[in-house]
Recover the amino acids of this structure.
């Protein structure tokens, strides 16, 4: 009897334990553990990234250079995918069935739960047709976003372009596969400001993945924040004119406002229409331009490293004056060149001897060879190598042999060799001025970018200092531009030495017989300039011209570099004069219309060899 009673209590206890276990488990599943509830809710909600409108880009006068246009991406979340009519979807979005199947497989391979892009940049018209039928294709949805639009169709190298993020960009948690990022120009330099901040919206959806309303009245939504609008330093009228006049020519123009370092125009020619890099045609157009024998993707203003030629004589003159090896009244003779023993560095025929002003006016090679030699052989330096090192310091103070630090990507440093280079080349520790005399006229191993040449001209216009060239003028929000663009950089040349150089540069334009830049004259505006003819072993010499104007309180300093233009006076000077008048006056005077027509009609490209 006692045994039966004991077994009864054991059985009851077991039932109670089992009931308690089920009760606790149900309590945990239904009340404490939210996993299943969240899973159920996840199946009935849809989260959509809200892409912000990218910041707009304006020119210095408020003209819009880059704006946005609506575009739509078709995306797929594989987990939500169900059987659907593939042919019907293909017809709606305009792709082949095989391509669609391949894209779906790729999306599944990437992630079963995360969405992937199936088709980018649907037009508004195609999107409208698709949206009405989208409920028939569970797992697919449309992501609204914006593409860029370029009303002026110019300044492609400066403005830059957007492209899809690569793996390296995904290290920044802001970006997800399929996002876009600035790849060059302003778009790249100011990506963080232009991109804005993403938002998020969560929707209730039915079994057909149709949106039925906002999830929990938008409690979990976040607003997208528009990107910063940027005011660039570009003068769009000057930029367009520069691109027009450089058509059918290779080279570059860089124009700077000396008093601020603001880049007014930056022309790399040949160029391309920035609209070519918008939408699904980007890849095809990129490959087309990449195969072009003229290399229009190459930004010659920042990346082409050219010998400066005779424009470099201006720097040589200023260093000679600062080191007191010459004065404005120093004369040197020139009998068709600089002669030492059996060595001759030729020069064109002109009267002799010449003062510094006349040497600049007539671009005398002999004068600047003597000047360079006396700098290197200055007794206070004790040796040529020491003299060269000091000379190189001055040259670097003008912004050469280093990146200037502008806010445009892909800038190169150029080259001004140090003493060790020549010691290796000549295989001896000591060398003579004659070994490197070609540097005196901007040849030899000197390599300088057009941006650096324009910056040099701005420093000369300012009588000894420059502001780091930059493309950002202001943020519309009032955010300050980087401090480094507001700081003066000094060349180490006393301001008193610049007047004589300015006088020589003005006589290059107006000095009459022997002057090399008369085609740069602008009626009633005092222009200071310098021609350069750069030796080119691969064909016709290059035409170079630097100038600033007006002489007092200059508003523009610029470089014109025309490859295979033969002489600085043939293309560089007239184009510079036209650019100066266009910027200062806003139009070209009747007296210069014939020169303008000749420059516009000139074709130096010859026969193209596109593959």
């Amino acid at each position: 009897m006692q045994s039966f009673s004991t077994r009864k209590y054991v059985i009851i206890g077991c039932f109670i334990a089992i009931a308690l276990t089920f009760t606790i488990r149900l309590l945990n599943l239904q009340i404490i553990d939210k996993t299943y509830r969240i899973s159920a809710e996840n199946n009935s909600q849809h989260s959509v990234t809200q892409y912000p409108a990218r910041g707009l880009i304006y020119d210095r006068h408020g003209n819009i250079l880059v704006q946005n246009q609506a575009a739509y991406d078709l995306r797929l979340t594989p987990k939500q995918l169900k059987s659907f009519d593939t042919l019907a979807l293909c017809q709606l979005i305009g792709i082949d069935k095989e391509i669609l199947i391949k894209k779906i497989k790729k999306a599944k391979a990437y992630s079963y739960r995360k969405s992937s892009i199936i088709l980018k940049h649907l037009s508004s018209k195609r999107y409208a047709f698709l949206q009405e039928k989208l409920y028939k294709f569970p797992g697919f949805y449309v992501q609204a976003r914006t593409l860029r639009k370029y009303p002026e169709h110019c300044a492609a190298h400066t403005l830059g372009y957007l492209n899809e993020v690569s793996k390296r960009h995904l290290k920044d948690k802001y970006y997800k596969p399929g996002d876009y990022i600035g790849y060059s120009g302003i778009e790249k330099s100011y990506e963080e400001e232009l991109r804005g901040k993403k938002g998020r919206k969560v929707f209730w959806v039915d079994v057909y993945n149709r949106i039925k309303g906002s999830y929990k009245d938008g409690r979990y939504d976040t607003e997208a924040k528009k990107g910063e609008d940027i005011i660039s330093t570009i003068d769009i009228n000057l930029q367009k004119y520069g691109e027009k006049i450089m058509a059918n020519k290779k080279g570059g123009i860089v124009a700077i406002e000396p008093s601020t370092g603001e880049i007014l125009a930056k022309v790399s020619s040949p160029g391309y229409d920035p609209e070519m890099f918008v939408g699904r045609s980007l890849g095809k157009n990129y490959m087309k331009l990449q195969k072009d024998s003229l290399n229009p993707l190459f930004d010659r203003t920042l990346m082409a490293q050219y010998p400066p030629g005779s424009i470099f004589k201006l720097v040589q003159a200023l260093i000679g004056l600062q080191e007191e090896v010459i004065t404005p009244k120093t004369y040197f003779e020139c009998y068709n060149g600089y002669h030492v023993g059996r060595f001759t560095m030729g020069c064109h025929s002109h009267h002799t001897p010449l003062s510094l002003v006349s040497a600049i006016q007539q671009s005398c090679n002999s004068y600047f060879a003597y000047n360079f030699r006396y700098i290197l052989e200055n007794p206070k330096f004790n040796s040529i190598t020491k003299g060269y090192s000091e000379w190189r310091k001055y040259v670097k103070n003008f912004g050469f042999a280093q990146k200037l630090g502008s806010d445009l990507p892909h800038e190169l440093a150029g080259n001004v060799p140090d003493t060790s280079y020549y010691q290796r080349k000549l295989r001896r520790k000591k060398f003579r001025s004659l070994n490197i005399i070609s540097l005196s006229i901007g040849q030899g191993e000197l390599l300088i970018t057009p941006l650096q040449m324009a910056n040099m001209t701005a420093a000369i216009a300012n009588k000894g200092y420059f502001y780091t060239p930059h493309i950002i003028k202001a943020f519309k929000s009032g955010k300050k531009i980087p401090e480094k663009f507001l700081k003066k950089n000094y060349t180490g040349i006393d301001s008193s030495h610049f007047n004589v150089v300015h006088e020589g540069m003005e006589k290059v334009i107006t000095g009459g017989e022997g002057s090399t830049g008369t085609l740069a004259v602008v009626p009633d505006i005092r222009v200071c300039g310098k021609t350069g003819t750069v030796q080119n072993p691969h064909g016709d010499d290059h035409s170079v011209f630097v100038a600033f104007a007006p002489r007092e309180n200059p508003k523009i300093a610029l470089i014109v570099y025309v490859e295979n233009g033969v002489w600085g006076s043939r293309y560089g000077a007239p184009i510079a004069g036209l650019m100066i008048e266009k910027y200062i006056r806003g139009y070209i005077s009747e007296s210069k219309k014939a020169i303008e027509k000749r420059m516009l009609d000139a074709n130096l490209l010859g026969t193209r060899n596109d593959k």
Observations:
- Residues 2-32 form the longest helix (31 residues).
